[in-house]
UniProtKB/TrEMBL annotation:
<dbReference type="InterPro" id="IPR050740">
    <property type="entry name" value="Aldehyde_DH_Superfamily"/>
</dbReference>
<dbReference type="GO" id="GO:0009450">
    <property type="term" value="P:gamma-aminobutyric acid catabolic process"/>
</dbReference>
<protein>
    <submittedName>
        <fullName>Acyl-CoA reductase-like NAD-dependent aldehyde dehydrogenase</fullName>
    </submittedName>
</protein>
<dbReference type="InterPro" id="IPR016163">
    <property type="entry name" value="Ald_DH_C"/>
</dbReference>
<dbReference type="InterPro" id="IPR015590">
    <property type="entry name" value="Aldehyde_DH_dom"/>
</dbReference>
<comment type="similarity">
    <text>Belongs to the aldehyde dehydrogenase family.</text>
</comment>
<keyword id="KW-0560">Oxidoreductase</keyword>
<dbReference type="Pfam" id="PF00171">
    <property type="entry name" value="Aldedh"/>
</dbReference>
<dbReference type="InterPro" id="IPR016162">
    <property type="entry name" value="Ald_DH_N"/>
</dbReference>
<feature type="domain" description="Aldehyde dehydrogenase">
    <location>
        <begin position="9"/>
        <end position="471"/>
    </location>
</feature>
<dbReference type="GO" id="GO:0004777">
    <property type="term" value="F:succinate-semialdehyde dehydrogenase (NAD+) activity"/>
</dbReference>
<dbReference type="InterPro" id="IPR016161">
    <property type="entry name" value="Ald_DH/histidinol_DH"/>
</dbReference>
Length: 481
């Protein structure tokens, strides 16, 4: 599959390609161009040319096109979801659901776009008006990770397009096919040539070329914190705007008065979704000592029911990890915890034998008796490993929860809503869930504090990140006859 530039499928001039493999089997699915700085320039030039036209399209028309694009995504969700299952390994049902959920976000952004408004400031001077308007920031570079390649792209794409910006996207090396397929679908749905472009290649080459180029005015990135810091530093050389949604090491606090059945189910479902490969998953649990062992038993019971296998198989809850690096990081945390005295209640070892030998399969792993000297309680895991430790006082739980450079999400379970809300206020995070865990809504802001990022995505908050203010001073004269 080629890159998508200016409404056409395009190979790299160098002719270099990279294989895309199925992480469940190791089989080559397809190849994509291994693009260069020249390809980055071509895509950005196309986006810049399209910007002059797209920004002038009335927002109502942009919204109409975006709604049509969302419908096209739903119609193609089976096709795109199949590619996503192949390149990521996530169970097919979840892959299709990601595409459809991303289409819903396109619709939300379209509705928010038609509510963009400016201001007419009151003036004490006769013959003067001051207008405050909103304008698109310009060409946007969207750099996305492997774990939710469609949804996390639409976090950026939907907001940028309705704001009047054009986009060049660079998907992750492991999962480019679903993003390329999406580009074709949106173009067929009526998104004009050059408005949405997709290039593929190594981040250190084509990614850096995109960020350092003179054309784009904003970089939107989801990924690791260290990569985000490098992107921010490079973007600062030309004062580009940035939205950075970075790493997480998210805590859950379970008090003795919580409903343990609800807490265990919610924590396991969230911690091990997508094989633990997402940033705001529950990474570590602090359980009040009185209910520590009962909660561990419930967590282990729920985790033990999660089946692992090829994403195309029936009734599979978890697929493989996407590559050896991700697997090695998760497994290193298990080894570290065991060496320091932790108990492994479930999982803990790579699955082998038969089809398991072809991919990086790791079952849901519960690490009991963890502490802050262990990597699982301090470093982002990005895999199906969950650390659990006891605590005695509420103040201790909050101190532990905040003892991290990250601040993306937190979770509290308690029968006392007043205490739960007080804990939520004290947790340093961009989002906090109380007494259950569900998907983040499309109409409220999502993002982190501390080293978990800069800016917010989704809803009107996401659209505003792609707009600039302009102030116009008007002096006029008129004579009434």
């Amino acid at each position: 599959m080629d890159m998508f530039i200016d409404g056409a499928w395009t190979a790299t001039a160098s002719g270099a390609t990279r294989d895309v493999r199925n992480p469940a089997t190791g089989a080559v699915i397809d190849t994509v161009p291994w693009g260069t700085a020249d390809d980055a320039d071509r895509a950005l030039q196309a986006a810049a040319a399209a910007l002059t036209r797209w920004r002038k399209v009335p927002v109502e028309e942009r919204a109409r096109l975006q709604h049509r694009a969302a419908e096209a995504m739903r119609a193609a969700s089976g096709e795109i979801g199949r590619l996503l299952c192949l390149e990521l390994g996530r169970p097919l049902k979840g892959a299709v659901a990601e595409v459809r959920r991303a289409a819903d976000l396109l619709d939300v952004y379209a509705e928010e776009g038609v509510r963009i408004h400016g201001e007419l400031r009151q003036s004490t001077l006769p013959g003067e008006k001051v207008l405050v308007s909103r304008e698109p920031v310009g060409v946007v570079v969207a750099i996305t990770p492997f774990n939710y390649p469609i949804n996390l792209l639409v976090f950026k794409l939907g907001a940028a397009l309705i704001a009047g910006c054009t986009v060049v996207a660079k998907p992750a090396d492991d999962t480019p096919l679903s993003t390329l397929a999406l580009a074709g679908v949106l173009h067929e749905a009526g998104i004009p040539a050059g408005v949405f472009n997709v290039v593929t290649g190594r981040g250190s080459e084509i990614g850096s070329a995109l960020i350092g180029h003179r054309i784009p005015r904003k970089i939107a990135f989801t990924g690791g914190t260290e990569a985000g810091k490098k992107i921010a530093a490079l973007a600062a050389q030309t004062m580009k705007r940035v939205t950075l949604e970075l790493g997480g090491q998210c805590p859950a606090i379970v008090r003795a008065d919580a409903d343990l059945d609800v807490a265990a189910r919610a924590i396991v479902n969230h911690a091990f979704a997508n094989s633990g490969q997402f940033c705001y998953r529950v990474n570590r649990v602090y359980a009040q000592r009185a209910i520590y062992e009962p909660l561990l038993a419930r967590l282990a019971e729920h985790a033990g029911r999660l089946t692992v296998g090829d994403g195309f198989a029936e009734d599979v809850a978890m697929g493989p990890l996407v590559n050896e690096k991700i697997f090695a990081n998760a497994y290193a945390q298990i080894v570290d915890a065991e060496a320091k005295g932790a108990r492994i209640l479930t999982g803990g070892r790579r699955l082998t034998g038969g089809a398991f030998d072809l991919g990086f399969f790791l079952p849901a792993t519960i690490v009991a008796d963890a502490d802050h000297g262990m990597k699982v309680m301090r470093e982002e895991t990005f895999g199906p490993v969950l650390g659990v430790m006891p605590y005695d006082s509420d103040l201790e739980a909050i101190e532990r929860a905040n003892d991290t450079p990250y601040g993306l999400a937190g979770f509290v379970f308690s029968g006392d809503v007043g205490i739960a809300l007080t804990m939520a206020d004290a947790i340093e995070a961009g989002s906090v869930w109380i007494n259950d865990i569900h998907r983040s809504r499309h109409d409220v802001p999502f993002g982190g504090v501390k080293e978990s990022g800069i800016g917010r995505e989704k809803g009107r908050y996401g659209v505003e990140a792609y707009l600039e203010y302009k102030t116009t001073y008007l002096t006029y004269r008129g004579v009434l006859a």
